[in-house]
């Protein structure tokens, strides 16, 4: 045999190729016939034993079909909705797993190229806030029965009118000392936060116009970010301003902006400075007068200039008053107050995809800041906050890594209820910015 192999070495390879081709052709014909029988048998009635053996036979047949004649398997498996290019891509992905890595990321996302102009997006950035407010109450009911990890939703105030006024009069003159928690009341297991579904369902409300995935919302990464303030207190550290300066409360004087959200911001400023020693600037610019829809665009230039003139500022807070119809009142440490909601813009919508000209290099830091504040609130003030709201567009949150957009209470709340909420908010800011979580 060795001599034969050496003597006819030049002809052996073609012979082998022909034999291999004959074998593969025979196998292909056999598999086609087996496939025909398999399809035919599927239309009849079989006993349990026959069904079992038929199932084994079918699985073996389909396995061999996938290996030797994948096109037949493609048709046999009923993939009419899958294009041939999708089928081929799937086969390549099977051989090169890294190509399919993105599919393993748990996600709520759809990406479509933007077809709107930057000017139209800027207008929508202001207009869609009203839509957010309308959805919040519709979606809030499903969260009311969650455990103490998530704040109970929208409790009705037990008193109104004269009774409410009498009760308010009995409140201590300096509520900031009565509402502060010195130690956590609830402990949130950090390992549970690593479950993306658990995190989303318990601490977030994702607007149905936007998307986020588990790689972007990684609790372990976000909670481990160092957000402590580095600037010494002899320089400006925190900026508070109001994109919507005209937002008022139930008992506000419409002719005096200091009885609305701007007055609440002034009270927060005094708490942070006098009680916690921060150096705070409270900017009184009014960017929504006569043109609320373009308030974010109107505020962008002046705030950017202010930050450029004060590079020591590390923290920016855009304080708003929400606009849901229901009277939302929370009792925290015996004090009636308006609830707080942290808000994040993702610069992404389902309709537009990632909006390149609203790029936010500080998005991860923004998400980390709101989550660290939310978890601290859940532990120290379990009834204070509503879930973090995730929405499209940017809302000027690209200015700083430590940027908070806060929706506080509603127009149905009183000034006192809004001011009372600033007490635990100031304490939470102090804890997160000093790393005392």
Provide structural commentary:
- By secondary structure, the chain is of the alpha/beta class.
- It folds into two domains: 93 residues, no CATH class; 316 residues, no CATH class.
- It is built from 14 helices and 13 strands.
- Strands 2-12-9-13-6-4-5 form a seven-stranded mixed β-sheet.
- Helix 11 crosses helix 14.
- It is elongated, with a radius of gyration of 31 Å.
- The N and C termini lie far apart (81 Å).
- The N terminus is likely disordered.
- InterPro entries: Spore_II_P (IPR010897).
- Keywords: Membrane, Transmembrane, Transmembrane helix.
- This is Stage II sporulation protein P.
- It comes from Roseburia amylophila.
The tally of strands reads: 13
Largest sheet: 7 strands, mixed
Tell me the Rg in angstroms.
31 Å
Q: Structurally, how many domains make up the residues? A: 2
Biased composition (Low complexity): 158-176
Keywords: Membrane, Transmembrane, Transmembrane helix
Protein name: Stage II sporulation protein P
Organism: Roseburia amylophila
In a few lines, what is going on in this structure?
This protein has 437 residues and is of the alpha/beta class. The chain has helices spanning 2-7, 9-41, 48-68, 70-76, 84-95, 118-140, 161-169, 190-193, 196-203, 219-224, 261-274, 295-309, 363-380, 415-433, and strands at 107-108, 204-206, 212-213, 238-241, 280-282, 315-321, 330-332, 335-337, 340-345, 348-349, 353-354, 388-391, 402-408.
């Amino acid at each position: 045999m060795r001599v034969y192999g050496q003597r006819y070495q030049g002809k052996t390879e073609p012979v082998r190729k022909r034999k291999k081709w004959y074998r593969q052709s025979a196998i292909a014909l056999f598999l086609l016939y087996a496939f025909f029988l398999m399809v035919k048998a599927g239309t009849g009635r079989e006993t349990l034993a026959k069904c079992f053996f038929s199932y084994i036979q079918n699985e073996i047949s389909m396995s061999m079909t996938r290996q030797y004649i994948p096109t037949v398997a493609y048709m046999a498996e009923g993939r009419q909705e899958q294009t041939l290019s999708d089928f081929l891509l799937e086969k390549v992905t099977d051989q090169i797993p890294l190509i399919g890595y993105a599919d393993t990321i748990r996600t709520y996302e759809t990406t479509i190229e933007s077809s709107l102009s930057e000017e139209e997006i800027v207008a929508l950035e202001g207009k869609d806030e009203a839509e957010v407010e309308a959805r919040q109450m519709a979606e809030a009911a499903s969260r009311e029965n969650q455990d103490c990890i998530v704040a109970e939703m929208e409790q009705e105030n037990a008193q109104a009118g004269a009774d409410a006024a009498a009760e308010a009069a009995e409140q201590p003159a300096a509520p900031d000392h009565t509402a502060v928690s010195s130690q956590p009341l609830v402990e949130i297991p950090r390992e549970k936060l690593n479950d993306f579904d658990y995190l989303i369902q318990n601490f977030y409300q994702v607007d149905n116009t936007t998307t986020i995935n588990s790689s972007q919302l990684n609790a372990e990464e976000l909670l481990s970010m160092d957000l402590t303030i580095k600037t010494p207190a002899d320089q400006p550290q925190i900026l508070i301003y109001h994109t919507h300066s005209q937002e008022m409360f139930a008992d506000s004087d419409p002719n005096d902006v200091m009885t609305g959200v701007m007055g609440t911001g002034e009270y927060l400023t005094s708490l942070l400075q006098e009680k916690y020693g921060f150096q705070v600037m409270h900017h009184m610019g009014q960017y929504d007068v006569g043109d609320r829809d373009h308030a974010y665009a109107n505020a962008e230039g002046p705030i950017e200039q202010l930050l450029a003139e004060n590079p020591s500022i590390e923290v920016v807070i855009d304080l708003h008053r929400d606009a849901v119809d229901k009277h939302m009142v929370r009792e925290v440490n015996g004090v009636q107050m308006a609830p707080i909601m942290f808000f994040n813009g993702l610069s992404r919508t389902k309709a537009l995809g990632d909006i390149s000209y609203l790029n936010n290099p500080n998005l991860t830091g923004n998400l980390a800041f709101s989550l660290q504040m939310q978890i601290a609130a859940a532990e120290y003030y379990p009834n204070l906050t509503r879930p973090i709201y995730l929405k499209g567009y940017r809302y000027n949150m690209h200015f700083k890594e430590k940027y908070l957009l806060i929706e506080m209470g509603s127009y149905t709340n009183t000034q006192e209820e809004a001011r009372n909420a600033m007490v635990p908010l100031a304490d939470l800011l102090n804890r997160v910015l000093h790393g005392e979580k």
